[in-house]
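Hi V.,

Quick status before I head out on leave. The structure for the redesign project is tokenized and pasted below; the design run finished overnight.
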């Protein structure tokens, strides 16, 4: 069984670019944590006993995770056509597969928790801020704004999901923890692609940097309000919430954007 390749980062830039944008690299990266986990977790992983309040909180969180993954699925699929070169198109095709699988395993997890109609439950429990973010993201994709849409999706949305899923996995029941840890591994790759692609484009494009900085400031409030709603739904103490916000802001600021 192949392990997730790390030596690829020692390749020269041209070989690096060719390798990480390939289906071969994607397969090597994901097969280790997909093998034996048809629904994102091992069949033998014990199901914890959750009281009604904990179960309700978990269902609310998973419903909103499904909305986020749906946004990423629709966004990535739309960006395949917008992508400026075949390497980016191939990477985004692998991301579409990832996002579809994330949505599938999260919906299955809702079923394991006794939710018979996930779509209806998602509508009932949806964060208004997250729905607004999804609308804004898909507008950028529909407008074929490559830099802005990629920034909103593979940097902002993926960083938000990574931060929330990482925090949640540290306090989740065993089954949900395994599901989230598998998704997190994919989010790292998606963020890396966004940062790499935009980093090269921003190097000599001050106007693009200014435009994306304005977009970031516009979307920050939606993202941070979504954080607040998600953590409140999970019952995370207020003292731990600023750390999560800082984690997200640090990820976005790696591209040189400050508040």
């Amino acid at each position: 069984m192949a392990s997730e390749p790390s030596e690829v980062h020692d390749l020269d830039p041209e070989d690096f670019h060719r390798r990480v944008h390939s289906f071969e690299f994607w397969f090597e990266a994901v097969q280790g944590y997909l093998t034996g986990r048809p629904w994102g977790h091992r069949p033998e992983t014990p199901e914890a006993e959750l009281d009604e309040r904990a179960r309700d909180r978990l269902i609310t969180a998973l419903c909103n995770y499904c909305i986020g993954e749906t946004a990423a699925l629709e966004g990535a699929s739309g960006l395949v056509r917008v992508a400026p070169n075949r390497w980016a198109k191939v990477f985004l095709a692998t991301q579409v597969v990832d996002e579809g699988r994330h949505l599938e395993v999260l919906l299955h997890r809702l079923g394991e928790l006794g939710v018979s109609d996930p779509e209806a439950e998602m509508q009932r429990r949806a964060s208004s801020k997250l729905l607004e973010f999804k609308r804004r993201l898909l507008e950028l994709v529909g407008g074929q704004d490559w830099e802005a849409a990629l920034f909103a999706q593979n940097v902002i949305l993926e960083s938000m999901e990574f931060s929330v899923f990482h925090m949640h996995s540290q306090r989740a029941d065993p089954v949900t923890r395994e599901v989230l840890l598998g998704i997190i591994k994919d989010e790292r790759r998606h963020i890396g692609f966004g940062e790499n692609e935009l980093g090269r484009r921003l190097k000599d494009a001050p106007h693009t940097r200014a435009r994306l900085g304005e977009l970031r400031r516009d979307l920050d409030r939606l993202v941070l309000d979504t954080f607040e709603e998600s953590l409140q739904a999970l019952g995370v103490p207020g003292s731990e919430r600023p750390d999560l916000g800082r984690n997200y802001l640090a990820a976005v600021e790696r591209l040189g954007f400050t508040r």
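Above is the designed sequence. The domain at 46-253 is CATH 1.20.1260.10 (Ferritin).

G. will cover questions while I'm gone.

Best,
W.
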